[in-house]
Automatic annotation (TrEMBL):
It comes from Sesamum indicum (Oriental sesame). It comes from the Eukaryota. PANTHER family: ELMO_CED-12 FAMILY PROTEIN, ENGULFMENT AND CELL MOTILITY. InterPro entries: ELMO_dom, ELMO_domain-containing. Pfam families: ELMO_CED12 (PF04727). This is ELMO domain-containing protein A isoform X2. Residues 55-216 form the ELMO domain.
Length: 235
C-alpha cells in the first residue's frame, strides 16, 4: 500500500543530523583520495532524475528487468510500476525527493546482491504485515536517510558516522552503495523485529539509522564489510 508523496523524505527532512561535540569531526583534513572520492559522490547526489534523458530511462528499464526479468514492461509510465512499490504509474515523480542517486542505489542493490534484493522486494521472509511498506519508495527513503546521517551535503562530514564513512570510502569507492544495501536489509530486519505496519515506517527507519550510527562509531571498522549489518546481505 502506498501513501502520500510527502512520505518520501518527510520524516528525515524534519530530523537534524547529530553532531558529536568534538572539534575532531570539524577540523580534520581529507586525504587526496578521500577528497576526490567524496567529491565524486557529492556530484552524484546533485544529479536530479530527468525522465527525458536516455541514460536515466535505460536505468529505470534496467531496474524493472532486474526486479521482474520474466515480465515485459509496457512503458516507462505504466500501472505495472506499482508492483515494485512506486506511488503511481510514473516512478519519475518519486525521484524528485532524492534524485538519480536513489535509482542508482536500487539498481546497484539488484545487480550486486540479487538474492537479498528479491527477498526484500517480494517480502519472502518473516511474518509480514497486512499493510507492508512499498519497496521502491522505501528504497528512496533509505537513500535520503543515509545522505542526512552521513552529512554528505556539507563540504565534508561533521559527525562521527560521516567522519568514519570517509575512511571507508577511501578503502572502497563503492562504500556508499554497499552501505545502502546494508541499510535496506537492516531496515527490513528492523521492520520484522518490530512487527511494524505501514504507519510505523518512520519509526523503523529511525531505528535503522540509530543502529547504523552505532556501527559507524565502532573503533575497529576499517572496511565497509566490517560493519555488523553487512552479514544481512547474505541471509
Amino acid at each position: 500500500m502506498v501513501g502520500p508523496r510527502a512520505w518520501i523524505g518527510g520524516f528525515f527532512s524534519r530530523s537534524s543530523n547529530r553532531k558529536f561535540g568534538s572539534d575532531k569531526y570539524l577540523n580534520y583534513a581529507l586525504t587526496p583520495i578521500q577528497e576526490e572520492r567524496l567529491q565524486r559522490l557529492q556530484e552524484r547526489l546533485g544529479v536530479p532524475f530527468d525522465e527525458t534523458r536516455t541514460d536515466h530511462q535505460e536505468a529505470l528499464r534496467d531496474l524493472w528487468n532486474a526486479a521482474f526479468p520474466n515480465v515485459k514492461l509496457k512503458g516507462l509510465i505504466s500501472e505495472q510500476w506499482k508492483d515494485m512499490g512506486w506511488q503511481g504509474a510514473n516512478p519519475s515523480t518519486d525521484f524528485r525527493g532524492c534524485g538519480f542517486v536513489s535509482l542508482e542505489n536500487l539498481l546497484y542493490f539488484a545487480r550486486t546482491y540479487p538474492v537479498t534484493f528479491n527477498r526484500l522486494l517480494l517480502k519472502q521472509v518473516g511474518s509480514r504485515a497486512e499493510w507492508e511498506y512499498p519497496f521502491a519508495v522505501a528504497g528512496i527513503n533509505v537513500s535520503f536517510m543515509l545522505i542526512q546521517m552521513l552529512d554528505l551535503h556539507s563540504e565534508k562530514p561533521r559527525c562521527l558516522p560521516g567522519y568514519n564513512f570517509v575512511k571507508l570510502l577511501e578503502e572502497n569507492e563503492e562504500a556508499f552503495d554497499v552501505l545502502y544495501c546494508m541499510a535496506f536489509a537492516l531496515m527490513d530486519a528492523q521492520w520484522l523485529a518490530m512487527h511494524a505496519s505501514y504507519m510505523e515506517f518512520n519509526e523503523v527507519l529511525q531505528a535503522t539509522r540509530t543502529q547504523l550510527e552505532r556501527e559507524l562509531s565502532l573503533e575497529d571498522i576499517h572496511m565497509v564489510h566490517d560493519l555488523p549489518a553487512h552479514n544481512l546481505l547474505y541471509h
